[in-house]
Amino acid sequence: MPRRDRKNGECVYCGAVGPLTDDHIPPQNLFASREGLITVPSCEDCNRGASKDDEYFRLAIGLHEDVANHPEAAAPIAKIKRSLLRPEAEGFMRDFLARTTVAEERSPAGIYFLRTTTDVEEERIGRVAKRITKGLFWHHRGRRLPEGYVVHT
Question: Three-class SS of residue 10?
């Protein structure tokens, strides 16, 4: 039975009509604070169904070498570490670490070094990017991305 405090309308992602929840775009887990984040109307299936991909996206982006050392990444990285230490995250962490390897590289100056690389699941990253694109389209245009448009990742 739908909750009475939810508004009814069309989901920005799948077009289903019914009770809606607010979905944060980009995913709220990327930020230290929820203040000022965009929300879009989403059916509960689309909203809840994306949470594991959002978590994976945060992990893949947050631990990337171009991001991990940035001062604004400190709070999200602390959240990533806490979430990976939860007992229910053991399989998730094991799978992610299994995709991590050490690569030998040489700098343009000829200095040899080792770098950690991770083979990310592009399909999961792509699903989050598509949701962000559809959500931002709705936020700026006030309507769903028309059927037939393809979001390439």
Answer: strand
∠ Cα 81 136 55 (to 5°): 20
Q: Is 110 exposed, middle or buried (0-12, 13-18, 19+ CB in 10 A)?
A: exposed
CB-based contact 50:24 (threshold 8 Å): no
Q: How far apart are CA 32 and CA 23, in angstroms?
A: 17
Q: Which pTM value belongs to this model?
A: 0.78
pLDDT in tens, 26-46: 998 888 777 889 999 999 999
Q: Give one DSSP letter per residue of 78-143, joined into a string.
A: HHHHHHHTSGGGHHHHHHHHHTEEEEEEE-TT--EEEEEEE---HHHHHHHHHHHHHHHHHHHHSS
